[in-house]
Specification:
heterodimer; B: mainly alpha; magnesium (chain A); calcium ion binding (chain A); EF_Hand_1_Ca_BS (chain A); calcium (chain A); EF-hand-dom_pair (chain A)
Chain lengths: ~180, ~850
C-alpha cells in the first residue's frame, strides 16, 4: 500500500481506483513522483502538467478546476489535491459536494459570490467568445434575474444550490470518467 | 447549555452497541446515528443548511425523521452518563450564557434542545470555518460570527480551535463507517480531512482506554468483525466495478458525444446485465437438469435453422417442447428433480425479481430526476449546469461550444414568444393539424395491426401446406420480415409528420413521436400475442408452445438483422450522401429515442419468449453484444453529437417507465393468460396432460397436504396466494397508503407555496438573514428528504444582531411576527415530514 490507509478513508474512492488514480498522477511526471508515498514526500505537479491530462486538456474550465482544487490556488497539485479533484468529479460524490465545487469553479474572482463578471467569463468560455458583448450582457442579466433569490444582484452558494436542485442532469454532467 | 452537548452518546457502551447494530438493522441504525451525527453538526445550522438543506439526500443527514423530543428524552434519561456534562471538562461552551432567547410561542416543551441550540449559534460561525477550504468562505453567512470577528478577533482563533476539537469529539463518537462518510463529504482538502481523522482516531483510542472496563472482549470482537466485513465489502464492490464491461468504451463515447448519447449505451448495457441474469437463472435451473436427462438429437442441420429457429432446433433445449414432464432422478442418491415445478417456479420467480428490480430502478430514477420538475426552466440552470464535463474530445468541445452559442442566440431572439401570440384562427388550425396527425398515426398503427394479423393467419395456414419442409420453413420468415419492415419504416413516417406539425417546444415534438412509436410497437406486439393465444394455442397443433417459441425466435433474429441494416443504411449511407452528394444534409445525428425504443421492443419480445424458449436470453445477450459494437462503430464513424439539448436523465426515467408500463406489465398479463387459461399441448413439454399450467402447482399442493410438516406451505398457498380475498385486502391497503402519501404531498405543496410567498414578502425588506433562512427552509421542504426544519433555528441568535448594528430597532420589530409565523409553518412542515421516514440511499441509479 503505497498511499497509506489514511487516504483511503478520506476520499470517496475505494482502493483499486485509488491506485489507478495514483498511476495516472505518476504518469504525468514519472521522474518527479516517487513510487512510494510512505515517507510522505512533498511533491507538487505544476499546472502545465495537470492541464495537459487527456481528461482536462480540452475542457474550457480546466484552469479553474485546477485552481479550485489545488491548495495553493494556482493550479499546482499535490497527490492529495489530485485525488480530491477526481473524487469530487466521480459519480460517487453527493450532489451537494459537487454543487459546492461547481460553484467555486464558476466563481472566477474567489469572492464567494458569482457576480456578473464571473458569469460573463463563464459565457465566454462556454461559447468561445462567439457572442457579442451585448448578448453576453443580456444572458448574464437573465441568469441573475432568474437564479438570484435574495435580490442582491449576485448568486450566493444557496442560490446556486437551489438552482442545481432543479437541474437533474447536473449530477451526470459534472462528472469526469477516469 | 453545556450539558446538552452530545448527550448520552459519549457513553462508550452506547457507542459500541450502536456500531454493532450496523449489520443487524441498517434502517434503525441510521436513524440512530443521524441523531448522533446531528449533534456533531447542530452548532452550525448554517452549515447544515448548506450541506443538508439542499440537494443532500444521503444517509448522513436526513433529519426529516427527527422528532424534537427525541434528543431531549435522551438527555433527560441519561444526564449523568455524559462526560461533557461538566462545564470544566469542556470550557468551550462557557461563554455567552446570556443567550437566553426564548423562542416564539409556537415552541412547546419538547422543543427544549432547539432553544439551547439557539444559544449555541454564535459558535456556529467559527465552527463553520472548519468546514471550509478558505477561512473567509462562510463567514458571510453568519452575521453574528462576523461581528465576533470584528469585536474580539483574539477569542476567535481560540474558538475555532475549540470547535475543531468539538467536531473531532463528535466524530469520534459515531461509528467508523458513518464517520468515514461524514469526513469524505466535507468540502475540505485531503490534508485537513486527514488531520481531522487522525485527531478523531486519537480521541477514540484515548476514550476507549479510559473506558476499557466497560467494553468486554466479545463486543470488541464483534466490532472488529463488523469493521473487517465493511472493508471486505468495499473491496469486493470495487472489484466488481472493475469487472464491469466496456468501462473504457463508455468513456470514449461520453468524451466524444456527451452524456445524452452515452445514456443509450448505458441503457443497452443495463438491459444486457438483465439478460445475463435471466440466462443464468434459466440455464441453471431448467436447462442443466434437462440436459442430464435428454437423449440424442437425430435431426439434420442445414443452416437455415439459424434464421428460422425450426428444424434441428425443435429437438433441443431451446424450446419448451423438448422439456420433459417427468421427475429426473439420480439413482445413486435417490434425489429427484421435478421438471414441472422447476419450470414454473423458475419462470415465476424470475418475473417477480424482474418486477421488483424494475420498480426499484424506476422509483430511484424518479426520485433523483423529478425532485422539482415544475420549476425546471430558464436560462440560469441552462447556462451554469449545461457544460458536460464528460466531453474530452477537442472537436466535440468546439462543436458543443458553437451549439451553445447558437442556442443562446436563439433564446435571446425570443422565437418562442412569437409563437405564443397566435390569433384564434391560427390556434384552431394548429389544433386541427395536431388532431389530424394523431388520427393519421393511430390509423397507420391500426392498419399495421390488421396487416400483421392477416400475415400471421396466413403463416399458420402455411404450416399446414403440403410443400416441402424447406419451403415451409422459408415461408415462415414472411411474417417476421413484414413486422420488422413495419417497425423500421413507420417511425420514419412519424418523423415526417413532425415537419407538418409545429410544436411550441421541441421537447413536445419528441414526446409526441415517442408516444406514437410506442403505440405502434405495442400494438404490433399485442396483435401478435392475440394471434398466439387465440389462434395458435387453440389450433390443436402438435406442441403449439414450440411454434410460438419459433415465431418469437424468428422475430428477434430478423429484427436484429434489420437493426444492423438500419444502422448501415440509416447512418453509413446517409453520411455518404450527406458529405458527398448533398452537402446540405450534413452528417447524421444519432437518434437516441428511436434506438432506445427498438431496444424496448426486442426486450418485450424476449420476455414473452422466455416461457416458450427458456434460452431466449442467450440470444438476447448475443444480439445486444453485437448491437453494442455495431452501434459504437457506426456512431464513431458516421455521426456527430446531437445539436439539440437532450435531457438525458429525464428521458432515461421515461424509458425505464416505458419498459415497465406497457412492456413488462403487458408481458405479465400474457403470462397470466397462458398459465391460468390456456391448455398446454398434449404430447410435449413439461405440462403435457394437464388442463392448465397452474394445475401443476395445485397438484403439488395436494401431495404436500399429506405431509404434516409442510402444512404451512399449503396454508399459505390456499389462504394467501390462491385467495381472492387476500389480494382484495392487499389492494385496499396499498390504495389507502397511496392516498395518504398523496395527501402528505398535497399538504407540502401548500406549505411550499406559503413559504414562497413569505420569501417574496421578505425580499423587499433589507434584512438578509431572515430571508435567507426562509429560503433555506423552503428549499429543504421542497426536497422531500431534506432536514426539514433544522435550518430554521438560525434565527434566534441572529435576532440579536440589530442590537449591535446600526439597523433601526423598528425594523426588527416589524420582522418578528412574520418570522414567528414562518416558524410555525416550518414546525408544521417538519411534523409532516416526519411522516415520511425514507431510506435515503444515495447510490445513483446507473442503468
Amino acid at each position: 500500500c503505497k498511499l497509506g490507509q489514511s487516504v483511503f478513508l478520506c476520499c470517496l474512492y475505494t482502493f483499486p481506483s485509488l491506485s489507478r488514480l495514483f498511476y495516472r498522477y505518476r504518469d504525468l511526471a514519472p521522474q518527479l513522483v516517487p513510487l512510494s508515498y510512505i515517507d510522505k514526500p512533498d511533491v507538487k505537479l505544476p499546472y502545465e502538467l495537470i492541464g495537459s491530462m487527456a481528461e482536462l486538456k480540452d475542457n474550457p474550465f480546466r484552469q479553474r478546476i485546477a485552481e479550485v482544487f489545488s491548495e495553493d490556488g494556482e493550479g499546482n497539485m499535490t497527490l492529495d489535491d489530485f485525488l480530491d479533484m477526481f473524487s469530487v468529479l466521480s459519480e460517487m460524490a453527493p450532489r451537494d459536494l459537487k454543487a459546492y465545487y461547481a460553484f467555486k469553479i464558476y466563481d472566477f474572482n474567489n469572492d464567494d459570490y458569482i457576480c456578473k463578471s464571473d458569469l460573463e467569463k463563464t459565457v465566454n468560455k462556454l461559447t468561445r467568445n462567439e457572442l457579442t458583448l451585448e448578448e453576453v450582457c443580456l444572458v448574464c442579466d437573465k441568469v441573475i434575474d432568474e437564479a438570484d433569490q435574495d435580490n442582491d444582484g449576485r448568486l450566493s452558494v444557496e442560490d446556486f444550490q437551489h438552482m442545481i436542485a432543479r437541474a437533474p442532469d447536473f449530477l451526470s454532467t459534472f462528472h469526469i470518467r477516469i | 447549555m453545556t450539558y446538552h452537548y452530545n448527550e448520552a452518546f459519549e457513553n462508550p457502551d452506547y457507542r459500541y452497541s450502536e456500531t454493532l447494530e450496523i449489520d443487524r438493522s441498517r434502517e434503525r441504525n441510521s436513524s440512530f446515528l443521524q441523531n448522533h451525527h446531528d449533534s456533531s453538526l447542530d452548532d452550525d445550522s448554517l452549515y447544515d443548511s448548506y450541506e443538508g438543506g439542499r440537494g443532500q439526500r444521503n444517509q448522513d443527514y436526513p433529519m426529516a425523521s427527527m422528532q424534537p423530543g427525541f434528543r431531549y428524552s435522551h438527555s433527560a434519561s441519561r444526564p449523568n452518563t455524559n462526560p461533557y456534562g461538566n462545564p470544566h471538562t469542556n470550557p468551550s461552551f462557557e461563554y455567552e450564557p446570556e443567550f437566553a432567547y426564548t423562542s416564539p410561542s409556537t415552541f412547546h416543551a419538547g422543543d427544549g434542545p432547539y432553544v439551547r441550540r439557539a444559544s449555541d449559534m454564535s459558535d456556529g460561525g467559527s465552527f463553520s470555518q472548519s468546514y471550509n477550504r478558505r477561512q473567509a468562505d462562510l463567514v458571510y453567512r453568519m452575521p453574528s460570527s462576523l461581528l465576533r470577528l470584528d469585536s474580539n478577533a483574539e477569542t476567535y482563533d481560540k474558538d475555532k480551535y475549540k470547535h475543531e476539537e468539538k467536531l473531532i469529539k463528535n466524530l469520534a463518537s459515531i461509528s467508523s463507517k458513518e464517520r468515514v462518510k461524514a469526513i469524505q463529504k466535507t468540502p475540505k482538502t485531503m490534508k485537513e480531512k486527514r488531520d481531522i481523522r487522525n485527531k478523531v482516531l486519537m480521541e477514540k483510542t484515548k476514550k476507549s482506554v479510559s473506558s476499557s472496563t466497560q467494553i468486554n472482549c466479545c463486543t470488541q470482537c464483534l466490532y472488529k468483525t463488523a469493521l473487517s466485513y465493511q472493508r471486505f465489502k468495499n473491496g469486493m464492490s470495487e472489484y466488481l466495478h472493475l469487472l464491469q464491461l466496456w468501462q473504457k468504451t463508455l468513456k470514449v463515447i461520453g468524451g466524444k458525444f456527451g452524456t445524452s448519447v452515452l445514456s443509450y449505451f448505458v441503457f443497452l448495457k443495463w438491459l444486457l446485465t438483465f439478460n445475463i441474469f435471466s440466462f443464468l437463472v434459466n440455464f441453471s435451473f431448467i436447462t442443466i437438469p434437462q440436459l442430464i436427462a435428454s437423449g440424442p438429437n437425430n435431426l439434420s442441420f442445414n443452416g437455415l435453422e439459424l434464421l428460422t429457429g425450426a428444424g434441428y432446433f425443435k429437438k433441443t433445449v431451446l424450446y419448451y417442447g423438448f422439456y420433459t414432464n417427468s421427475t429426473i432422478t439420480k439413482t445413486e442418491n435417490n434425489s429427484s428433480y421435478d421438471m414441472q415445478l422447476a419450470y414454473i417456479f423458475t419462470i415465476g420467480i424470475y418475473f417477480i425479481i424482474c418486477f421488483f428490480s424494475l420498480v426499484y430502478s424506476m422509483a430511484k430514477s424518479f426520485r433523483k430526476n423529478f425532485i422539482n420538475p415544475q420549476t425546471y426552466s430558464g436560462s440560469a440552470a441552462k447556462l451554469l449546469c449545461i457544460w458536460d464535463f464528460n466531453i474530452t474530445n477537442e472537436k466535440a468541445v468546439k462543436l458543443k461550444q458553437s451549439n451553445l452559442s447558437t442556442q443562446i442566440k436563439e433564446s435571446l431572439s425570443e422565437v418562442t414568444l412569437e409563437v405564443l401570440n397566435l390569433s384564434p384562427k391560427q390556434r384552431i388550425a394548429r389544433i386541427a393539424v395536431h388532431l389530424l396527425v394523431w388520427m393519421a398515426s393511430l390509423g397507420i398503427a391500426a392498419a399495421c395491426c390488421a396487416g400483421v394479423y392477416f400475415f400471421s393467419r396466413n403463416n399458420l395456414q402455411l404450416l399446414e401446406g403440403n410443400k416441402s419442409e424447406l419451403e415451409n420453413e422459408a415461408a415462415t420468415l414472411v411474417l417476421p420480415i413484414v413486422v420488422s419492415l413495419l417497425n423500421l419504416l413507420i417511425p420514419f413516417c412519424f418523423a415526417l409528420f413532425g415537419l407538418i406539425e409545429k410544436f411550441q417546444y421541441p421537447r413536445h415534438q419528441l414526446y409526441a413521436t415517442v408516444i406514437r412509436n410506442v403505440f405502434l410497437k405495442i400494438a404490433i406486439i399485442g396483435i401478435l400475442c392475440y394471434y398466439w393465444l387465440n389462434d395458435v394455442a387453440t389450433s390443436e397443433k402438435e406442441c403449439w408452445e414450440s411454434l410460438v417459441g419459433q415465431d418469437i425466435y424468428r422475430l428477434i433474429v430478423i429484427d436484429f438483422i434489420f437493426c444492423l441494416l438500419a444502422s448501415f443504411f440509416g447512418e453509413f449511407v446517409r453520411r455518404i450522401i450527406g458529405t458527398k452528394c448533398c452537402k446540405k444534409l450534413g452528417v447524421p445525428e444519432f437518434d437516441i429515442a428511436r434506438n432506445v425504443l427498438d431496444l424496448i421492443y426486442t426486450q418485450t419480445l424476449a420476455w414473452i419468449g422466455i416461457f416458450f424458449a427458456p434460452l431466449m436470453p442467450a440470444m438476447q445477450i448475443i444480439s445486444f453484444f453485437i448491437i453494442f459494437y455495431v452501434k459504437k462503430v457506426s456512431l464513431m464513424r458516421n455521426c456527430q453529437p446531437p445539436r439539440k439539448v437532450w435531457r438525458a436523465s429525464q428521458m432515461t426515467t421515461l424509458f425505464i417507465f416505458l419498459l415497465f408500463f406497457p412492456s413488462f406489465t403487458g408481458v405479465l398479463s400474457v403470462m397470466a393468460v397462458i398459465i391460468w387459461r390456456r391448455t398446454p399441448s398434449k404430447q410435449c413439454g413439461p405440462f403435457q396432460g394437464l388442463t392448465s399450467i397452474i394445475d401443476a402447482v395445485s397438484g403439488w399442493m395436494h401431495i404436500l397436504d399429506s405431509y404434516s410438516s409442510s402444512k404451512w406451505v399449503v396454508w399459505i398457498y390456499y389462504n394467501l396466494i390462491g385467495s381472492v380475498h387476500f389480494f382484495f385486502i392487499l389492494t385496499v391497503i396499498v390504495l389507502i397508503i397511496t392516498y395518504l402519501y398523496w395527501q402528505i404531498i398535497e399538504g407540502r405543496r401548500i406549505m411550499v407555496r406559503l413559504l414562497h410567498e413569505q420569501i417574496i414578502n421578505r425580499s423587499s425588506s433589507s434584512y438578509q438573514p431572515y430571508r435567507r433562512a426562509a429560503l433555506q427552509m423552503t428549499a429543504s421542504i421542497e426536497r422531500p428528504f431534506g432536514r426539514n426544519g433544522r435550518d430554521f433555528y438560525v434565527e434566534p441568535s441572529s435576532a440579536r444582531i440589530p442590537e449591535k448594528t446600526s439597523l433601526p430597532p423598528a425594523d426588527t420589530e416589524g420582522c418578528q411576527p412574520g418570522i414567528s409565523e414562518t416558524l410555525a409553518l416550518a414546525l408544521r412542515a417538519r411534523q409532516q415530514a416526519e411522516w415520511e421516514m425514507e431510506d435515503n440511499d444515495d447510490e445513483d441509479f446507473r442503468p
